[in-house]
Write a structure and sequence with these properties.
The chain is mainly alpha-helical. Helix content is 50%, strand content 6%.
Length: 208
């Protein structure tokens, strides 16, 4: 059943939550929970792009056919303040995105009219943008299916991306550029929220 047309959901506007970080295993569990049809492939690739590129959900859903450069392995993204940046794709992410782009063409959605990369494929919204509420509901369903009890939010993939880069030794400036932050102070503040839990773990792991 396709839920692209859903328009209503409980809102969390105004509420503040602590930052959740998703492990690679948890993200893969979400991906594995997607069905084997075209809709499932699209959803799977959307989750992978959110996790591996650190995009805001509005940025991911706003990617158009012309924004993807398969030859260079890059995506052009329009972020806050209408600022454009280009993000790179790792090999596996590009492979998955290429699979979805190929499936889109099979379904009859090509570059004509420059539709969104992650578009609807049902009769009701064929080639049209996906609603944010659909993504939120999707992640909640997949998390329940996988037995993941963490709060699910598209933005937490962005936090997880930044956290992974930090752990991999990627410099702050590269993280700033990847996230599309205007200044490095914002990135530094963005990453500081991860420190308390990790500091506690580091202290607990000390040996006499």
């Amino acid at each position: 059943m396709n839920f692209d047309h859903l328009k209503h959901s409980k809102t969390t506007k105004g509420r503040k939550f602590h930052t959740e970080l998703y492990s690679k295993e948890e993200v893969m569990a979400l991906v594995d929970g997607c069905n084997n049809g075209a809709t499932g492939l699209r959803n799977k690739v959307l989750i992978i792009v959110l996790y591996r590129c650190g995009l805001r959900i509005s940025e991911a859903l706003g990617i158009r056919s012309s924004d993807y450069n398969p030859n260079e392995g890059t995506i052009r993204v329009i972020g806050k303040g209408n600022k454009m940046r280009v993000v790179g794709l790792d090999t596996q992410t590009k492979l998955n995105l290429d699979l979805w782009v190929s499936k889109r063409k099979e379904l009859g959605i090509n570059g004509a009219g420059n539709p969104p990369i992650f578009c609807g494929i049902s009769k009701m919204n064929f080639g049209k943008p996906i609603q944010l509420v659909y993504v939120r509901n999707l992640l909640t369903r997949l998390a329940q299916k996988a037995g993941i009890e963490k709060r699910m939010s598209p933005h937490q993939f962005r936090h997880s991306f930044a956290h992974d880069l930090l752990n991999e030794g990627i410099g702050l400036q590269h993280i700033q550029i990847s996230l599309g932050h205007s200044n490095i102070a914002t990135t530094s503040k963005y990453l500081q929220r991860f420190n308390p839990r990790e500091t506690i773990l580091k202290i607990q792991q000390r040996e006499w």
